[in-house]
Amino acid sequence: MSGLGKQFKGTGIAKIQRQNLEKGGKAFPDLTGDGKVTRADVLKGRGVFKKGGSAKPGLWANINRRKKLGSKSTISKKAYANMKAGFPKK
Q1: CA 40/CA 43 separation, integer angstroms
Q2: How does pLDDT run across 31-83, given as a tens digit for each residue?
Q3: By C-alpha distance, which of 62, 59, 40, 58 is closest to 49?
Q4: Contact 32, 48 (CB under 8 A)
Q5: Helix (H, G, I), strand (E, B), or coil: what is residue 53?
Q6: Residue 21's CB: how many other CB atoms inside 10 A?
Q7: Which residues of 38-67 are buried (b: 16+ CB within 10 A; e: fewer)?
Q8: What is the spatial distance between Cα 62 and Cα 77, in angstroms, rounded to a whole number?
């Protein structure tokens, strides 16, 4: 707080700023509804989760799906053919 007083010394702004900081400000709202204010609430407040926050399945989801279907290989035949041919072609 001492640095704040030095910046605005003689203007009266430092005292007002210090009083506002001591009050603590308003509490951030619980936007996710889980009962506590978390990082997810802050991100939702910024508009990061506009579509609902779901992510696309990644590489491991694809590999596990192919294993469940009974495939011995975890890559497609087309990808394997491209790899054998030296994809990407130089």
Answers
A1: 5
A2: 888 888 888 888 888 887 766 555 667 777 877 887 888 877 777 788 888 88
A3: 40
A4: no
A5: coil
A6: 11
A7: eebbeebeeeeeeeeeeeeeeeeeeeeeee
A8: 14
| N-to-C CA span, the chain | 61
CB 36 within 8 A of CB 27: no
User: For residue 76, what is the DSSP state?
Assistant: -
CA distance 81 to 89: 12
Q: Compute the distance between CA of residue 36 and CA of residue 42 in angstroms, rounded to an integer.
A: 11
Q: Check if the beta carbon of residue 31 is closer than 8 Å to that of residue 45.
A: yes
- Token pair recorded at residue 46: 């910024």
